């Protein structure tokens, strides 16, 4: 709802400071950061600061402090300066008078109330507006409880402001009843001030000096004073049900025991260093040795021995590897799970490909990830019931969790349902990601990336209630051939991985399709294609879903032999053929007629002659077929006749074969994939050409598969989008191919 006084404030800014270089703001009666930035720039104009900026930084604070250390009715430099303050008060929800340039009783009462809400009324008594209060006034920070905030948290926030506001590097924090990054840093500053650190030394970082100092401030029953206030404040900020006070009583000790038990700390009931650390920073006491670990290195017998000797029981390993060159052992290697099981260790699987930015997380990619992860888990030998931890390995802001991460995990849920729900869903990521995905009912346990203490999703958030593994520090274990670099994790026993495994199927060639799986394959692919906008039949498409799938499966013996010959997954051939056949439409038929007219002179009236086009069930053009066959013949992947794409007769010969001969078209598909991996020499490529990659192999990564499927179509936004849609289709074919490989 628009606030009339905020509209007046906005109008004042635009009319008075717009001509002075301050960007105009919408006169909509709503407070926003843009409005606060405009007020900040207006203040900078009044202070003579140039150039102006949105930031109320050290220069602005220094100029304000030197020129106007105490603003009141007697010291107000001008009416517009006062109107600026009055406008800011209204934007903050306080009475600013009539925006008439008078620092009158109404304005003074509001400033007094503002300081009391901030908790700085004793530090800054009276109605004068002081520089740090002015700085806080020009933010969006609330100083009353909002959105279900905690009154206990607000009490802590007010106390921190009141006690430390006069320190040089401490600025007024919100008093809204919510823990946050800003509040977490203010707690560390408070600790450092109480340790005796000078201004300029205290920095709000949990560094060596802070850790050393805290070791000397362990608390127990009957401890009293400021350190108990700080400790109880830290407990409150971690959502523990304690009273903010200066005495370490029995109730506080009992709650400390519960917190220690939850965090897998030694249960002492005291405010010892490990407890302080877990309260103040996400990774806690990094000297703790956990019983779980994860890493990007193969577990050999020697490394298994080293891990067992160091007390580890649970090992997190990756199902797939997007970077087989840079990190050759990141994914589970052949024989590795057998080594883990033989040594009495247990493994929990992690799935990570798209994980470094919000743009990599969509509902479609979540579905794709679920299918890929399930296939990979089965390939490696994980039994049903294993929990796969899907990674969100970036600093996701809360809105990105809403817009990207939650839809991604909805897709994960859908994808695993399509696979028959053989595995449970876990989430790996910062605390807020884990908490919100769990609250949405989309995961069953969390693997918390607490080493990334600077992530906004870790700052100010408690350990998730369903945490299974807490990643706290990277260390080296063992020596010699047993040396291994790992992430040391604390385990809660909510997840224990698996200690025995099925025979892995990763390196097996594909086998002929088993027809007892025809109907479930048919239904799964139908369901997926319908979900992305392709009904089973359509007036605009030549072939129905059933016709396309029947064509692929009718040629299964050929497809299987081609896959085995080229040592690639048959799902690559099946996906490209099915997808292209599903897209055959009336326009394609018209263009086909044009090609026939061009080369034979025969055709109906109105047909436009065309030299070449994509045609046949796999939508292959004469030129692409020639280039793929020539490339593979030259490289020794196949034998045949070398043709010249510059010769019309050769274009017609290739075009006619892929148009008329389904078996020949299917035979050409893997050759196009091999040509695509080689960079498609001579073909139509993006500027700079296509990069070469490994030719398709049985251990192809998701990224490599995506690239090959994309290159089949070409390059550009449409090819990228379609490759993203083909990936779940590939995984569905692979789902049933994997089942048959295991028969």
In short:
The chain is α/β, with parallel strands linked by helices. It has helices at 4-17, 33-47, 58-67, 79-91, 105-118, 131-137, 151-164, 181-194, 208-215, 226-237, 250-262, 273-280, 301-309, 336-342, 363-380, 398-418, 431-439, 518-531, 545-554, 556-566, 570-582, 586-600, 622-635, 648-660, 662-677, 702-713, 717-741, and strands at 292-294, 314-318, 346-351, 387-391, 424-429, 445-448, 467-477, 484-491. It folds into 4 domains: 4-140, no CATH class; 181-280, PGBD-like superfamily/PGBD (Muramoyl-pentapeptide Carboxypeptidase, domain 1), CATH 1.10.101; 292-491, TIM Barrel (Alpha-Beta Barrel); 515-741, no CATH class.
Question: What brief labels describe this structure?
Answer:
single chain, TIM Barrel, 743 residues, eight-stranded mixed β-barrel, alpha/beta, 8 strands
Describe the structure.
The protein is an alpha/beta fold. The protein has 4 domains: 137 residues, no CATH class; 100 residues, Orthogonal Bundle (Muramoyl-pentapeptide Carboxypeptidase, domain 1), CATH 1.10.101.10; 200 residues, Glycosidases (TIM Barrel, Alpha-Beta Barrel); 227 residues, no CATH class. Helices cover 47% and strands 6% of the residues. The protein contains 27 helices and 8 strands. The protein has an 8-stranded mixed β-barrel, surrounded by 4 helices. Helix 13 links the parallel strand 1 and strand 2. Helix 2 packs antiparallel against helix 4 and helix 24 packs across helix 25. The longest helix is centred in the C-terminal third of the chain and has 25 residues. It is globular and about 100 Å long. It starts with a helix and ends with a helix. The mean pLDDT is 94.
